[in-house]
Amino acid sequence: MTTYLLRRLLQAVLTLFVVSLILFGLISVTPGGFMTVYAEKSDMTAADLARIRANLGLDDPVPIRYVKWLGNLLKGDWGRSLTSKRPVLEEIGSRLPNTLLLMSLMLICTLLVAIPLGILSAIRQYSWLDNVLTTIAFAGQSLPVFWFGLLLIIVFSVLLRGPDGKPLLPGSGMYTLGEPFSLWDRIRHLILPVTMLTFVSAAEYMRYMRSAMLDVIHEDYIRTARAKGIQEWVVIYKHALRNAIIPLVTLLSLDLPSLFAGALFTETIFAWPGIGRLYFTAALKNDYPLVMAILTIYSALIILSNLLVDLIYAMLDPRIRLS
Amino acid sequence: MKPSHSLLIIAVLLVLTACSSSPSSSPSGSSQTMPTTAVTQPTADQPAVDPNAPKQGGTLIFGTPQEPAILNTLLTTSSIEDAVTSLFVEGLVQVNDKGEYVPVLAEELPTVSEDGLVVTWKLRKGVRFSNGLEFTCEDVKFTMEGALSDLSQVSTSGYSSIETLECPDPYTVVATFSEVYAPYLRLFAYIVPHDAGPLDQMETWAYNQKPWGTGPFVLEEWVAGDHLTFVRNPYYREEGKPYLDKVIIRVLPSREVGIQLLGTGEIHALWDITEADLATIEQSAGQNVTYKATVTGENELLVLNFGNNDGSAPADPATNPHPILYDLRVRQAIQYAINKQMIADTLLYGKVKPGSTVLPAGPFACPQPASEYNPERAKALLEEAGWQVGADGIREKDGMRLSLKINSTSGNLLREQTEQVLAEMLKQVGIELTIENMPSDVFFAGGESDGIRDTGKFDIILYTTGPGLDPDSHLFSNYSSARIPTAENDWAGANFSRYINPDVDAWIDEAAIVMDQDVRKELYCKVATQINQDLPRIFLYERLSITAHRQEFHNLTISPSFVDFAWAAQDWWLDQ
User: Fold this and answer.
1) B22 vs A37, A43, A169: nearest CB
2) Is residue B384 domain-shared with residue B322, that is, in the same domain?
3) Which of A150, A162, B421, B544 could bridge across to B293 with cysteines, CB 3.0–4.6 Å?
4) Is B320 helix (H, G, I), strand (E, B) or coil?
């Protein structure tokens, strides 16, 4: 077990190294470059441009820049954002709580909705309920996120009005500006983005839950359990669910990194100041230290969560042995 | 149904309600309840009964689709940053809404020595920064040293011509130039306080994110990605001003969202609307929304390439000319074939003036007669130049088709429509125009990234540019032959046409070292007239700077220098 873990960790470090190399390469070949904003100012002299380029560390050839970046990273220095000059970890840290709040609420709601509905859909297979739920799930998976988000805004923030004539639900931001802190106000601002994210992701989870449950329900041990006269809900929840939940654990673990990365479309549509939008604006401005930091942390989280999945599997299913 | 299932369904319903219920009433739905901390002292110019008198207090919310990243004037890179800094940064001078320089932190405009080399300022006494420290000559000196310091990201043009800047007393500034720098006033348009931090550590200054200044407001809170809250500067020099208690800059995901929020009253103003949005804004007029627009001095324009479009980027296009566009008659024909009025009327709802001059606004404005729309004349010129109509209606000469490509930034509906209209107009006279747009990063990329403008790999490009208040740097970098970007000069300059006219070069150079503003104006006007004869560029229409706002927001005046939306924020007030 220990050797297995060590081997996997070593692999993880190597993978991360290769990933960062590829990312750095890709970023450096994107056209434009950070200097474009300065070149647009007509009074910049060639000497000014050369000085600024040198200060930003854009003078060196790409391989040297990568080595410098990696060297600093190993010393724990992630660098500074080219636009704000703040340390990139500080930039990320200022947005992380917002993204964590949004995404963890989304995951909780997703599980609370998807697991019961998936089970219900499976044990009532081909009933009208199953048909309706499956259709909604299909729709949820096929809808373009941005379109659905705009639809929610038009309905709940523009068309529908509360008794005071104000929009029923706020369509953007995290809270009402210029007012003292109010928990209710925060919750109101969360409703639309969380609903949108939950709808899309619960659709996926529900379909997994349903098919996993269907697989399990026809197993011999379920028939045996029923034959022993155990109550139906005990059969479903104690015997079937425990086995059917394994694929969901995989799905969930692989979704955990998105807690960090946020949701670009949702954050953009609902003006949510999270990591997704931070990444998007940084990428638009070619702010490479910031882009690299977000992508590298995200990659590390994906690699770690994969490892986590394998470990959890061994715990959930004693038949799996790690070696 | 078995009890277990109904339990399950109830649980699901509960969860669904928890995750997505829409509450029918809201205790805190209003975004307009203002803090009641208005200053109560009545001022002389504020009689109680006059409805037009400014009201004290209130929180104004200004929406912007861009987010500032840094607020140190020496390190800003985007126009929203320049705009937001104008809430707290002041200079010795600023430009008012008529485009004139007026003293701000100086008692009057400076005196200039006979030879134009010594500029002497008298500073206002008793001006305090929002941290309580007095503003003196030391801050002016620090600002200049900051601009010239290694980590600064502002242009050193002009600053590098200052030989010494001395403070004989705290309220006198004597700047001695080593050579005459005519647009010297712009060098004193902002002040960075001298206690901001050591210049060799500028990147780590706390000032970058928590700045202070002498202006009417001071930054209180900055929630990254969401908003910036500015409160009154307690030391602001004008009694009773600013009228507002707070100004909040709210970061929005897009202009479209901003226009929505303007209608619902969640924001009071929206920065940087485009001309194409004006129709939407006018539809919202019933919701108390209106706008302010001013010409910026910029034109939406076509840049015509004199050099070959093969990327050889010659410093002199005569050595490797563009096979079609180097001929003046073809360029004239293109201008005659374009109905600028029609573009302004149909695509821009008649809100803009057709372009006619490189200097449309400001103290150096040089109006020129509108170009004539005359397709017949265009055809005649093309015939004269040897371009004969071919089988498919497109002209040909020596086996070459009269086919040109136009490039611009993609994702801009107005530009795409403009290109299509241009293609249609040029087709009428036998010129084929093909459209190829690219993301703005690619379009504006520099020569080192193989950008099409620097390397001359284009026939015609469409974008917006124009002089700031003083045309010196714009005319020099866009029209002087010394500013043709080549690999040799590290792609410096914006004379993408590779336009060479010795007269223009001489006038621009002379205007930069003459102190008499009337003489300068005359010289720049000669340049503008000559440009319209040589046609390195064709001006399509004059760009506007537009800020949409709600009717209850009073005294918003925008200055033609485009970025200073908050140049007179101390006079803003809200009708509540």
Assistant:
1) A169
2) yes
3) B544
4) coil
Q: Return the pLDDT at B44.
A: 46
Residues of B in contact with A50 (CB under 8 A): 490
**Ordered DSSP codes for B247-312:** EEEEE-S-HHHHHHHHHHTS-SEEEEE-GGGHHHHHHGGGGTEEEEEEEEEEEEEEEEP-B-TTS-
Mean pLDDT of chain A: 87
Q: Does B25 touch chain A (CB under 8 A)?
A: yes
State residue B560's pLDDT score.
65
- Predicted confidence at residue B564, as pLDDT, reads 67
Report the complex ipTM: 0.81
Best residue in B20, B231, B465 for a mutation probing chain A (most A CBs within 10 Å): B20
Report how far residue A33's alpha carbon sits from residue B370's, in angstroms, rounded to the nearest whole number. 38
Please report residues of A whose CB lies closer than 8 A to that of B266.
170
Query: Contact B19/A172, CB-based, under 8 Å?
Result: no
* Better-scored residue on pLDDT, B496 or B28: B496
Checking if the pLDDT of B142 tops 70, the result is yes
Q: What is the mean pLDDT of chain B?
A: 87
CA-wise closest residue to A220 among A239, A242, A246, A241: A239
What sign has the CA pseudo-torsion A35, A39, A43, A45?
positive
Q: Over 70: is that where the pLDDT of B7 sits?
A: no
Q: Which 8-state DSSP code applies to residue B168?
A: S
Half-sphere exposure of residue B442: CA atoms within 13 angstroms, side-chain side: 12
Residues B109 and B75 in one domain: yes
| Same domain for B386 and B352 | yes
B4, B10 Cβ separation under 8 angstroms: no
Contacts of A160 in chain B (CB under 8 A): 22
Tell whether B515 lies on the interface with A, counting CB pairs under 8 A. no
Q: Which residues of A94-117 are buried (b: 16+ CB within 10 A; e: fewer)?
A: bbbebbebbbebbbebbbbbbbbb
Q: For chain A, say whether B1 makes contact (Cβ under 8 Å).
A: no
Confidence label for A180 from pLDDT (cuts 50, 70 and 90): confident
Name every chain A residue with its beta carbon within 8 A of the beta carbon of B209: 84, 86
Ramachandran area for residue B116 (φ above 0: left; ψ -120 to 50: alpha; else beta):
left
Reading the block at residue B9, the tokens are: 């369904």
Domains detected in chain A: 17-74 (no CATH), 99-147+194-316 (1.10.3720.10)
Q: List the one residue out of A229, A224, A254, A244 whose CA is nearest residue A116.
A: A244
Please give the residue range of the domain that contains residue B421: 298-544
Q: Which residue among B225, B477, B494 places its CB closest to the CB of A273?
A: B225
Read off the CATH number of the domain in which B191 is found.
3.90.76.10
DSSP notation for A171-207:
-SSSS-TTS---HHHHHHHHHHHHHHHHHHHHHHHHH
Phi-psi region of B272 (alpha: psi -120 to 50; beta: other; left: phi over 0): left
What is the domain-level CATH number for residue B409? 3.10.105.10
Q: Is residue B392 part of a domain?
A: yes
B310 lies in the same domain as B432: yes
Does residue B91 belong to any structural domain of this protein?
A: yes
The stretch B383-407 carries a mean pLDDT of 94
